[in-house]
Every structure is written in structure tokens, then in C-alpha cells.
Amino acid sequence: MPDLQPEPSIPDALPTPVLRFAGGTLILEGLPKAALARLFGEGLWAWDSRASVWRADAMAYATVYARLKARGVAFQDEVPQWRPVRWGENHIHPLRPEQEAARRAWLETRRGTVIMPTGTGKTEVALSILEETAVATLVVAPVRDLMYQWHRRILGALGVDAGIIGDSTFNVRPVSVTTYDSACIHMEKLGAHFQLLVFDECHHLPGPLRSDAARMSAAPWRLGLTATLERADGRHQLLDGLIGPVVYQMALAAARGKTLAEYEVVRIPVHLSEEEQSLYDRLSLQVRRFVADRRVADPSFTWESACAQTGEDPEARKVHKAFLIKRAVEDRAQEKLRVLEDLFRLHQEERVIVFTGTNAMAREVSLRFLLPCLLSHCGKKERLEILEGLQRGIYPALVANQVLDEGVDLPEAKVAVVLGGMSSTRQAKQRLGRILRRTGEARATLYEVVCLDTKEEERSRTRRRSDAYPRASRRQPRGQGGRTVSR
Questions:
Q1: Rounded to 10 degrees, what is the CA torsion of 233, 239, 241, 246?
Q2: Which of 111, 118, 326, 451 has CA 20 to 30 A from 443's CA?
Q3: Which residues make beta-bridge pairs with 373?
Q4: Cα(395)–Cα(372) distance, rounded to whole angstroms?
């Protein structure tokens, strides 16, 4: 909180101001406009003419409280509705030095973000903070799987059966877990019930809607957890206001071979077949010609402009369909499946995780190799059965699109194969992190299978700008239809 110098107090003749929470906002009653401006300046409070009250975002509670106290204003604080927390039996593992450093850094201000690579124990840091603070806490996770995972971790480490808010359940307890979407929906009612917010994978928070989960809460203490803070749209800069600044950051290089396993990234370039390449080139030309023709009349026309016109322009719809088919050609290249078969043979005694770029490719891999397939619409019971099957050796491998990119605890695996994905360096780091939990001296290997002479090659180059992909080695293809992997 800012270091505020005392100013003259508000005259005693004025009625006692009242500060309360209402619908995700703060309401301050009993202060005239002149006094409000002198205390807070411009921009924090807005006049609501419908209710004849001053309003501010609920997340300003800590600032408002500190300012009123610093100015010597006697006021009635009706905001906090949090209840006391009593932990059960403590089963938190002793923290490693870097985890302890992260915990101490956050406790200095009780606001801010902790950035640590996947597999280095961010959850253990958060559980230790929960145990230390012992206040009403809401943990917010990006997906249902992570919400239930947090529920299990809190029960196992702190002996408390946390409430669940989401997935058709509304069970609010002093310690609760929820998803970003459910938090946005319910925070107008729950924003004053929790003193501490924990945002797991907090790079999801600054979205236009999800940020309401932070704005509509009066929680003065906030913890963000992530392995990859940056967003392509630059909105990660909003996290300073929503959660607090970065208080601790650990580079992947500092954990490699120590907290995390040593690893190798192997890039395997493949070619489209003649038939696939011919179709790909024809569709690419169709897309380029459409955009070029439209730019004659409108020099500012872009591919994004074409996508925006698909609802009303038949030609734009036709070209957009051509674009989707072109992406499907590179995503589902048959040579990728032949390479994957070789990799399964090479690592037949090891667990393997296969990441694809689309659900269609994930299903194709699943059908061809008779592997379980994890997609976003899979139910909780099915996902747990698949992960337990991988753990017990019933399944030698599993395939997923994006559902395993973040956070979900996986059985120990040291081999991953990326058959497709976005250009995001965040996704690249998250996928690599799935296989980096250290087990003795075992090394991890991530294979990246990339179609040459396609846009996928460009996306791969962008991903490899991340420090997670240092000096990736390369396996050269032996020609069309030939085997590509050698060791």
C-alpha cells in the first residue's frame, strides 16, 4: 500500500461515512464531493445517479481503507464478510530454497505474482502461504480439472474440504475453489467473502471478461501463479493492478538439471506428400489472391478483415473454408503419423504424451494407435480414468490437444511428441513442462514434428524463440515415406 502522509481530518460535524460492498463494487456514503476529492483525487470514485451514491471497483478496497485510515477519517467499514479458517492436519512438504524464497517474497507485501517453471512446485508455495495466512481464501483456476485438483491438494495438505463453486455446484465455504468463468459470474455476490484470492495460471486473468473476477472482489491479499506471464496481446501488463507486481521469478535455466530434469528438444522436419503439397499450394494461392484482390479497393484489407466478413460475404466464406482445409492438410500430414509410429517403437518402454494442434488430429492419432484421447469436453470421470490408466501402465501413451497444456498433474513421463500447435511460446513452455519433473537422473525428450514448406514451419520458429527451446537438435527426414528418426 502507498506510504500516505496524514492530512487534516474531516470535520467531526459530518455524519460518519459508511463503506460497504454492493454487487462487485464499493459504496461510500456520508462524504460530500469536496471531501471525497480531497481524500482520493479524481478517477477512483464515480457518481451513481440511480442510487445517489459514490461507487468504485471492489478491488480498490485496500486502497480506500488505507487512505481513510491515513487521513484520520472515522468511518464504518461494512465490507469484510470473511469467516475464520482453521486448518486440519498439516501435510505440506518442506519447501526447497527457491520455493521458500518465493513464499517470503510474497509475504512481504501479500500481493503479487510468482513466476516459476512448470514442475518446480508453485502449488506447494501457494499451500504454504494458505497455511501461513489462515484466512478465508478463494482459489481460481482456468478449467474444471484444475479446480478439482486444487480441491484434492487442499484436502490432502491442509485437511480442509474446500467448497466448490462451478461445474453445476455452488457450495461456498471459508476456503473454496472455482474457475475463472464461475468467478466472473458469482463474484458480485462473493466479492466480500474472501480475504485472499489465489489466481492459478494467472496469465488467463487479464481477458476483457475474466478480469472481472479480480475487479469485483474486495480481497486485499492476492497471489498470482504462472510459468509464463506474457500474453501476445500485451494485456499481462494489467496484472500489476489486478493482482500486484511480480514478486518472485525463477528462470527455466536455473531449474534445469536441478529442480527439473535435464532435457533435449529434438526437431523432426517432415514433408507433405506430393498430393498433400499440391492441395496445400492451391489453397494457399486461393487465399493470397482473395486478399490481394480486396486490397486493390481497400489497401488496409487484411486476413482478419476477410474473417470478419464471412457472415455476409459468400466469397469470404469460401476462402475461409479453403484456409481451414489448408490448415488441416499441414496439421494431419500422413508423414507425421509415420514418424510418430517410429517414436513409439523407439520409446516402447516409456510413457509418451502426444500433443496435437487440433481435436481432429488427436482423434486420428487415437484411432490409429488405439490410445486414449483427452479433449476439453471429456468428463471428469473419464479424464481421471485415463490418467490413472497411464500411471498404472494400462495405457503406454495418451494424446491430447490443449487440455494438458496447463497445470493438470500428470503421471511421470519423460517423452512428449508435439505434432502441432500454436506459435505461442507460452504453450511451448507449458507442454515441455509436462515431462520435466525430476526423477533421479532420467533425462526428458520433447520431439517437435514440423511440416516443411508450410506455415507450420513459421509457427515452430516462433515457438523456439522461447528460452525453453535452447539449441534444439534436428533429425533429417530420409525422403518421402522414409523413416525419419535415428539415435
A1: -130
A2: 451
A3: 399
A4: 8
* Nearest CA among 419, 413, 264, 395 for reference residue 340: 419
Rounded to an integer, the average pLDDT of 237-256 is: 91
- CA end-to-end span of the chain: 57
The answer to whether 201 touches 4, Cβ cutoff 8 Å, is no
Question: Shortest CA distance to 154 belongs to which of 191, 179, 129?
Answer: 129
Which residue type is seen at 47? W
Q: Give which of 360, 355, 331 is closest to 434, Cα–Cα.
A: 355
Transcribe 141-186 into DSSP letters.
Answer: ESSHHHHHHHHHHHHHHH----EEEETTEEE--SEEEEEHHHHHHH
Which amino acid type is present at position 88?
A: G
Rounded to whole angstroms, the Cα distance separating 79 from 218 reads 8
Q: For 293-307, how does the pLDDT look when each residue is reduced to its tens digit (9 = 90+)?
A: 999 988 898 888 889
Alpha carbon distances (Å) from 140 to 124, 209, 224, 230, 373: 16, 14, 10, 19, 26
3-state SS class at 273: coil
Residue 379's pLDDT is: 74
> Of 3.40.50.300, 3.40.1170.30, 3.40.47.10, 3.30.460.10, which CATH number belongs to 18-77?
3.40.1170.30
Per the CB < 8 A criterion, the answer to whether 183 and 220 are in contact is no
97-250 and 263-272+333-474, same CATH topology: yes
pLDDT digits (tens, 9 = 90+) for 116-133: 988 888 999 999 999 999
251 grid coordinates: 528462470
3-state secondary structure of 21: strand
Q: Can you name the CATH fold of 97-250? A: Rossmann fold (3.40.50)
Annotation: CATH topology of 263-272+333-474: Rossmann fold (3.40.50)
Residue boundaries of the structural domains of the chain: 18-77, 97-250, 263-272+333-474, 274-330
Q: Tell me, what amino acid is at 249?
A: Q
